[in-house]
Design brief:
Chains A, B: Its cofactor is Zn(2+). Two copies of one chain form a homodimer. With 326 residues, the first copy, chain A, is an alpha/beta fold. Helices cover 28% and strands 26% of the residues of chain A. The first copy, chain A, starts with a strand and ends with a strand. Chains A and B meet through helix 2, strand 15, helix 8 and strand 16 of A and helix 2, strand 15, helix 8 and strand 16 of B. Strand 16 of chain A pairs antiparallel with strand 16 of chain B, so a sheet runs across the interface.
Chain lengths: 326, 326
């Protein structure tokens, strides 16, 4: 099969590789759409020790089961594989399973390829009326859905629910969409890139600001750098909550004195529970997260250029979807 | 009246000052015991912009109402004065009131004095059987009670409740006592000072370790320095909670990458709600927090020496109580 292989730092090669081999209980899935995530870019730049070259990246995929009794079933893929037996798995926090694996991290190859293998319990059936290009967004949307849910659960019942979302990429946009679908009416987005702000306005119906002067009860940091954490901890109201998704810089930025004196909570969030993934997929199918027509589609064979364009900030769309069969 | 006045950085003078003057609705209280807090030491060293000299420090006090119809009533003092009308006050989070005042911060003088003024709603009646030297501990114990309560509320119901308390001073010891009274059986304390560890063992029945190799679902950082936050964020289990009380250093220390990937929550905590203060006082009165006999008592007139001894680490007891009438 064809795959886009991360061969070395800043080097992606589109080439033939052995076809994905399903293990027992797994299905072979013909990938029709696979999104490029910030973490793929992070790995491409050599900044993620968890993803050493050579490796097939990509974990935001939808496609069609290619073999067996379920052949032809349209599915979106939860890429997080967990043990199902530990305390975390049994309490619905599968993302904390100590045995967790995710496609695109060894030992599992990713989905920047024509086929990928995955067990049935990680697949969500996609209704015929829903394009697979929308269904492929379930993974990044679930990341933000999960963060929004945890943040709202942590917020005191008596608090206002004014929200600030830092970052206008796919995760930030998805956080705004998730919060709105959960009943949060007043959401401010912060995005420093003017092209991206224009795209958000023209194609997503979202107003983003370059800087932030207002405060909020709930802040979602969808970037994860010192500067964004500094902004989050300066702008969150007393008693408020910061939900932190990004992995931009490992340390620093938080004003811990202010967070202590004003009783601010910081919640690290990573991926999603299996239920969050299913809930997000259902919200997509039901149209709760909007038309989701803000993606840009390119052939997987041109994937290396897509990475270069994202890196050079030449892409205004929050998400590029690659097509392994174009 | 006599008072111990913070005159300049590292300068405390015991001298005559005008007697405290109750405003309308306030009582004049004859102070019988007042504890030295880490934040008093912080101010004494010139490290707290909120407490500029000249100022009477001290906010952990118990005493006897000296005038009026309630004359003779034995009370412990909640030093936190709030507006009672804002959203925070009305929802029982008075410590987040934007108008909050605390005695020993301008415009309110503190309790290192023979008298202090305080409104009746901030006073808790102390039963005759309870010595005022124990009742004066309500304030520091309430700080830890509040942090322990918030941490337990934030912890997932399915999580274990193994606890780690960093710091064996009064706040750390009080956190261990509060957690135990709330039903947490497995508590590890960390205290680097060998004299203090020996005191905790011999006088408080608590085992503290110099270093920590084990992990915990719940960590209370009762110190608040970079190094203690680094320890907290390294030792807390996936999905766990760090409750942070201290104001040692303003920034840094947290391993935010780990906190994000392992979904760790950090909760800033400051003082207590009015209900927490009352609950803590009741727990003292009921003996739930142990004999509370681990304090050292000195005359207020010798307060400057007490500060010097604490600073030079010559005090093993977690708390010195000063007596303005000795």
């Amino acid at each position: 099969m064809k795959a886009l292989v991360y061969e070395d730092v800043e080097t992606l090669i589109y080439r033939d590789v052995p076809r994905a081999m399903p293990k027992e209980g797994e299905h072979l899935i013909r990938v029709t759409c696979v999104g490029i995530c910030g973490s793929d870019m992070h790995a491409f730049l050599g900044h993620d020790d968890r993803r050493p070259a050579p490796l097939i990246l990509g974990h935001e995929a939808a496609g069609i089961i290619d073999e067996g009794p379920l052949k032809g079933l349209r599915v979106t893929i939860n890429p997080l594989v967990t043990c199902k037996t530990c305390t975390y798995c049994l309490s619905g926090r599968e993302n904390l399973c100590p045995e967790r694996q995710i496609i695109s991290l060894p030992p599992r190859e990713g989905a920047f390829a024509q086929f990928v293998a995955m067990s049935e319990s990680n697949l969500v059936n996609v209704p015929e009326a829903v394009p697979l290009a929308k269904a492929a967004l379930a993974e990044p949307l679930a990341v933000s859905w999960h963060a929004a849910r945890l943040a709202l659960e942590a917020l005191e019942a008596s608090a206002d629910r004014k929200a600030l979302v830092i970052g206008g990429g796919a995760i930030g946009l998805a956080a705004a969409l998730a919060l709105r679908s959960m009943g949060v009416p007043d959401i401010t987005m912060i995005e420093p890139n003017a092209d991206r702000r224009a795209f958000l306005r023209d194609h997503c119906g979202e107003t983003a600001s370059a800087t932030c002067e207002s405060d909020a009860d709930l802040v979602i940091d969808a970037v994860g750098f010192k500067a964004t954490r500094a902004l989050a901890s300066a702008r969150v109201r007393p008693g408020g909550v910061i939900a932190h998704i990004g992995l931009g810089e490992d340390m620093g930025g938080l004003d811990i004195r202010r967070m202590t004196l004003q009783e601010i909570s910081f919640i690290g969030t990573y991926t999603y529970s299996a239920q969050d993934f299913r809930d997000t997929a259902q919200a997509i199918f039901d149209g709760q997260l909007g038309p989701l027509d803000w993606t840009e589609r390119r052939p997987l064979s041109d994937g290396a250029r897509a990475f270069a364009d994202i890196r050079a900030a030449r892409v205004a769309a929050p998400k590029i979807l690659l097509d392994p069969w174009a």
